[in-house]
């Protein structure tokens, strides 16, 4: 299983490569702080699935507000694989 820090590093890399957003922490709010539009949100989901080789399911977006929530979700998905 991947360690949390490695997951966070991967998430940061996706933000940097795909969205050109370089400064994020676990507490960064996706909508309020980063102002992600729907296309950016979709890009983020697809690229995270590709990078981590996971598939998000219906309802996974519930409760996702901060980068921390994304990392938590990825941890859960990676445990299942």
Describe this structure in words.
The chain has 81 residues and is mainly α. It has a single domain, classed as Orthogonal Bundle (Non-ribosomal Peptide Synthetase Peptidyl Carrier Protein, Chain A). The protein contains 3 helices and no strands. It has helices at 4-19, 38-52, 67-80. Helix 1 (4-19) packs across helix 2 (38-52). The longest helix is centred in the first third of the chain and has 16 residues, at 4-19.
Topology (elements, then pairings):
Elements: H1 4-19, H2 38-52, H3 67-80
Helix pairs in contact: 1-2, 1-3
Keywords:
mainly alpha, Non-ribosomal Peptide Synthetase Peptidyl Carrier Protein, Chain A, 81 residues, globular, 0% strand, single chain, 56% helix
pLDDT averaged residue by residue: 94
Sheet of most strands: none
**Oligomeric category:** single chain
The backbone outline, from C-alpha atoms, is: globular
What is the total number of structural domains? 1
- The second-level CATH architecture is Orthogonal Bundle
What do we call the CATH topology? Non-ribosomal Peptide Synthetase Peptidyl Carrier Protein, Chain A
Task: Kindly state the number of beta strands.
Answer: 0
Helical residues, percent: 55-70%
Report the CATH C-level class: Mainly Alpha
Percent of residues in beta strands? under 5%
Distance between the termini: 9 Å
Give a quick summary of the entry:
It contains 3 helices and no strands. It is mainly α and 81 residues long.
């Amino acid at each position: 299983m991947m360690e949390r820090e490695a997951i966070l590093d991967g998430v940061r890399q996706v933000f940097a490569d795909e969205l050109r957003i370089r400064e994020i922490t676990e507490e960064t709010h996706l909508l309020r702080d980063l102002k992600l539009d729907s296309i950016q949100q979709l890009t983020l989901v697809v690229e995270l699935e590709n990078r981590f080789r996971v598939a998000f399911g219906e309802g996974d977006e519930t409760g996702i507000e901060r980068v921390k929530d994304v990392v938590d979700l990825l941890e859960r998905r990676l445990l299942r694989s």
